[in-house]
Amino acid sequence: MRWDQPADYVVPVSLDRPVSPNPYDLLPTVDSFHVGSDDITDGQPLKDDQVAAAGNTSPHLSWSDAPAGTKSFTVTCFDPDAPTPSGFWHWAVVGIPASVTSVARNAGTTDGAALPKGAVQLPNDARLPGYLGAAPPKDHGPHRYFIVVHALDVETLPVPNDGTPALLSFVMLGHTLARATLVATAETR
Question: Average pLDDT in the 102-130 region?
Fold first, then answer.
């Protein structure tokens, strides 16, 4: 069974449901800073190669104006519209040094070779290290992908390299100084 082919793992059922809220609106409020991308436009569809069936290419990201006291960054990609009670984590990178202000396009390969020195990718919800492109179920409508850079007040977090993105989110909650967010979309018809 292949995880990157929606028709292979989703049996025909009604997937009608209300739109999930912005997951970050449910967390304590923190400051924001700027994030941009050569590959993503906020509110617009992901490029074809950022979709699981067409390449799994992680987007370029660059950020600026992180708050004073930032000691590291974490990057995550989350789909709150996945038909599960917990959404779907597509990417989680921890341990990005505070001196780094960008992640290169396709840095999310499974070997992580193009990530900044010291950064580690946690397994996504398919339990694979690296970026897993969008793969919403066919005819489920548009899904939102929250690509977030988190500015943290610690250099390292006590999360094992095989930890889940949900665990990462819980552990970094009290260490998040600010978030920079882009929201892209994808749909399988």
Answer: 96
